[in-house]
Write a structure and sequence with these properties.
Layout lengths: L1 H6 L1 H15 L9 H8 L3 H26 L4 H20 L4 H30 L5 H29 L3 H21 L15 H20 L9 H22 L14 H18 L1 H11 L4 H8 L1 H18 L4 H20 L9 H26 L7 H41 L6 H16 L4 H46 L17
Helix pairs in contact: 2-6, 2-8, 4-6, 4-9, 4-17, 5-6, 5-8, 7-8, 7-13, 7-14, 7-16, 9-10, 9-17, 11-16, 11-17, 14-16, 15-16, 15-19, 17-19, 18-19
Length: 522
């Protein structure tokens, strides 16, 4: 631990704090979507694109950002990234329409990648030799997973003070702090990882086309009802063609953007599937936020505050799993604990989808969700990196990012939204068919509601319409709750399934193997 003592705890903490605003460049506006939508008056489809584009811009820029980051002296890089983030953030406040707002937000997302890289290099070069790799991966996941919920809460809180602009002002203050910290902690302006600049521009162009098609599917799939629309089928066909073109491209490129040789390592293939799997399990959180806002009527600040319960699980699981991995615990032990916690999260909420529950009813399942993230995310990042040589590190990282974020979170979330809508319609149709003269309970409810409106002074016709509308609204609420219950019952089974496989086949009965240092360990 000599390097740690030499640099000092203060330096280490300061350098880690520098990473936090860049990790959360887009998180502060998570709960502000309705305000932003109302401010610009965009259609829901246009706004869907505007919500997705900054995230896809960030993912697209990761490979180029890593290369550029190695060429520029670190002090200049981190100061430039902080200053540009403030500039682009501020520009978004003065956007005349949703398109310019998306443009500036996308630039903030792109710059954040460079900021993450610039803030991570000093930690890797100066302190990593003093750490066992599980400790470093644990620290990064602790910062990344923990800070995002805090930033979502602070963003919602500041937005509630005035409007959505206050959340962006809050982020600007964070980048100002980054500038001050960089002046203090970055003593020399050097580029210690500088190498000859070589970049797979053709592969990057193919990646852009690939992600553009995924963006189209995410934004348009649900409104076009997926394969019922020919344009969706054409997009999927082009997607397969682009994958084929890239596989040909790899054969004739010395250093491709994503080298398919990385998939010769079994743990990369399994790890990518694990990233996809955990992304799916974590992605059902959108159902909870929809339940809180759409059914229970919770405001943004209240939702963000309730979700802070996830931090309790994170603060328990990440240090514990990091310690166990450091002590070379079996992989299966961590996996089983994580999958079991995700299963408990889904099964508890399955029994709590009913109107009128309080905030405290969400605490236990969200704590289990935090435990699941804390157990599974560090081991996922470590396992997919195990035994992979440094020259394939970027390829390994991109395969994980695409698996979890692009396919599971983005595309999987869009498909989940469609599935919920279809199940909701199915249940609503079934419930509506029961609202007949033979259903005495429904008729009694209808008559009582009608008499209420008659006593309020409405005419016979108006009272009948209001009573039918009230009963229809109750039917709609009941159908969406049944749809949520269906989703969470299936997901609880999906979460517990890997545990059965691990136990039956005796998989993962070994500790983590060799993991080399990498520029960005996630």
């Amino acid at each position: 631990m000599g390097a740690l003592k030499k640099g000092g705890i203060l330096n280490l903490v300061g350098l880690y704090i520098l990473t936090i605003p860049f990790f959360n460049a887009l998180n502060v506006t998570t709960y502000d979507n309705s305000q932003i939508l109302g401010h610009f008056g965009a259609s829901t489809t246009v706004f869907a694109y505007c919500s997705y584009i900054p995230f896809f811009a960030m993912i697209t820029f990761i490979p180029l950002g890593l290369k550029i980051g190695k060429q520029i002296p670190l002090r200049t890089l981190i100061l430039s990234a902080s200053f540009l983030s403030i500039l682009f953030n501020t520009a978004s406040l003065y956007s005349i329409n949703i398109f310019w707002f998306t443009f500036w937000r996308s630039l903030v997302a792109i710059i954040s990648v460079t900021g993450i890289f610039a803030s991570m290099i000093p930690i890797i070069l100066k302190y990593n030799p003093a750490f066992n790799m599980p400790i470093m991966y644990g620290i990064i996941q602790f910062i990344l997973q923990g800070s995002q919920h805090l930033y979502k809460f602070f963003g919602a809180k500041f937005t509630s003070i005035h409007n959505w602009t206050f959340g962006i002002y809050f982020l600007n203050i964070n980048f100002l702090v980054c500038i001050l910290l960089a002046w203090y902690f970055y003593k020399k302006d050097l580029a210690p990882m500088k190498a000859k600049f070589q970049f797979d521009w053709r592969g990057w162009l193919i990646l852009i086309f690939f992600l553009a098609l995924i963006l189209f599917l995410c934004a348009e799939g649900q409104t076009r009802n997926w394969f019922s629309d020919p344009k969706i089928g054409i997009a999927v066909a082009f997607l397969l063609i682009i994958v084929g073109i890239y596989l040909i491209h790899v054969r004739f490129t010395k250093e491709p953007l994503i080298n398919t040789d990385v998939f010769k390592y079994k743990n990369v293939v399994i790890g990518s599937l694990l990233f996809f799997y955990t992304g799916l399990m974590n992605g059902t959180g959108s159902v909870v936020t929809g339940y809180m806002s759409g059914v229970l009527g919770f405001d943004a600040v209240y939702q963000a505050k309730i979700h802070l319960a996830i931090l309790i699980g994170l603060f328990i699981a990440i240090p514990l799993s990091t310690y166990l991995l450091y002590k070379r615990i079996y992989l299966a032990t961590i996996w089983i604990a994580g999958f079991a916690c995700y299963g408990m999260f889904h099964i508890i909420l399955f029994f709590r989808f009913y109107p009128g529950i309080t905030a405290t009813d969400f605490l236990l399942p969200l704590i289990f969700k935090g435990l699941a993230i804390g157990f599974l995310y560090p081991i996922s990042a470590l396992y997919i990196s195990e035994g992979v040589p440094k020259n394939l590190g970027d390829s390994r990282m991109m395969s994980g990012v695409i698996s979890r974020i692009v396919f599971a979170t983005m595309l999987g979330g869009a498909i989940l939204g469609t599935h919920i809508s279809n199940v909701n319609i199915h249940h609503k149709t079934g419930l509506s068919q029961q609202l007949s003269s033979a259903n005495q309970q429904a008729q009694t409810k209808l008559l009582n509601t009608k008499y209420y409106y008659l006593h309020q002074g409405l005419s016979e016709v108006e009272a009948q319409k209001m009573a039918e509308k009230s009963l229809s609204n109750q039917t709609s609420q009941a159908s969406i709750l049944l749809a949520y219950k269906d989703i969470y019952l299936v997901m609880s089974a999906i979460c517990f399934l890997p545990i059965i496989i691990l136990l039956l086949f005796g998989l993962g009965r070994r500790p983590i193997g060799r993991v080399e240092l990498e520029p960005i360990p996630f």
